[in-house]
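Item description
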Amino acid sequence: QAPLVESGGGSVQVGGPLRLSCTISRDFPGTAKRYRMAWFRQGPGTERSFVASINWNGRSTEYGDSVKDRFTISRDNAKKAIYLQMSSLEPEDTAVYYCASGGYSESPGDANEYDVWGQGTQVTVSP
């Protein structure tokens, strides 16, 4: 019954790839052309941090500084899903990864701008 459901998490060694998926059961209410989807993550003892975001048609994306050259966010509206392709994984990438949905925002990297969240999927990167 959750509006957003993450999958694809697991254990991977340093340098490996992993792809996360988020299936969308309910969109954030508002203008379809403005809504954004995003990935955030929260490691042990850390605050939830921004990973990547994508707008309604997939043509506008943003990335956190620590992942911008290694992760790629995408979406498939026909499949009602967004994805996070991760490569060159590091131990510092170990976290619970959350899918989120929000409306228009001037600060898509701010977790407070998102209203709907998934339950998260664990990614563990071993040295």
User: Anything to note?
Assistant: The two ends are 36 Å apart (CA to CA). The longest strand covers residues 95-102.
